[in-house]
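Hi support team,

I submitted a single chain yesterday and got back a structure, but I'm not sure I'm reading the token output correctly. Could someone confirm the output below corresponds to the sequence I sent? I've pasted both exactly as they appear in my results page.

Thanks,
R.
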Amino acid sequence: MDAVLITGATSGIGLELAKLFAKDGNNLVIVARNPTELATTVDVLKQQHQNIEILAISRDLFDPENAFAIYDELKQKEVTVNVLVNDAGQGLYGEFADTDLRKQLKIIQLNISSLVALTHLFLNDMLQRGTGKILNLSSIAGKLPGPWQSVYHGTKAFVQSFTEAVRSEVKDKGIVVTALLPGATNTDFFNKAGMQDSKIVQNKEQLSDPADVAKDGYQALMRGDDMIVSGFKNKMQVDIAAVTPDEMLADNLNKRQEPVDRKDK
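Hi R., thanks for writing in. Yes, this is the structure output for that exact sequence:
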């Protein structure tokens, strides 16, 4: 079976991407931690797209060893991954010195180590076949220093640089590698990161629709683009960031991301 593998596929941008691939008749391998949410997602997708096969794999990618387990399971089941979507990712809100260090290290494992492992494993198979596509969920956070989310922003800077480098290495070998850079999006990310009190998420109308973000990423991947910044305001923010000193950027974002009721220390 040929299939599209999507991590973090039960909610947000990952789920919207799964819907787009399913609509175009692609078989899916969807990966997430929660087996109940996986089963619900399979039911929803199957109701809308009865002509495709969907394999659900419950694995916790906070442990990078599970990337190898996913690869081995698909090999045993003779599933060929022709498109890899690395969507799974998480953040942790707070000033770095006050946050839980072990949680931050787990986020690095999820956002970086598991993404790197999955990319390496499935990319090698794609290179042998001379065809394949990889979509990595980067973020405009990777273009900006991020007080109150320092580790998350740092991981997305890695993802962006890594994606651009790998794309350059394989672009003449039949492989498309694309980075999708959303801004603040209306997903469960902020709840999981403990960011509900942040100024940046208080105005829900300012948050992007995950369906729009997914569509931008899907179309960019199909076109073979190197990257896509989703949303006009986010494009403007990235353009402004490119000509603004990092210290000024960091200070401005510090004010935007601090809690709404924060009192000066």
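A quick pointer for reading it: The chain has a mean pLDDT of 88. Let us know if anything else looks off.

Best,
Support desk
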